[in-house]
Amino acid sequence: MEITCGIDIIEIDRIKECIEPLNEKFKERVYTEKEIIYSESKNNQKYQHYAVRFATKEAVFKAISKFLDDKFEISWKDIEITNDETGRPKVKIYHEISKKIDKIDISMSHCKQYAVANVVITWN
User: How large a percentage of the chain has pLDDT more than 70?
Assistant: First the structure.
């Protein structure tokens, strides 16, 4: 068994600047429909939720990077951050590389200025 990890931190204002005022292209390129619906439902804190999902996707990229090559290109939308029935965040990877993954554990947090995520992956 092999274990990899990734971590990322981002300023929430950077994500806000990418999304507002009219840059829907960024949202459509990076986030899945479920992620957009969830983040938009958070009203005044929506940018924190967009940012923490971005940081989590970056952390996932870092954790899987050693297994990526030309045949394993992956896009932002191939990684989706949702919540289970208890509210715990989870990752779904819509890509062939997911067949090599045994488990993914994530931890996400945000405050007024920053969002941070940590990802640990165990491989088959």
Answer: 97
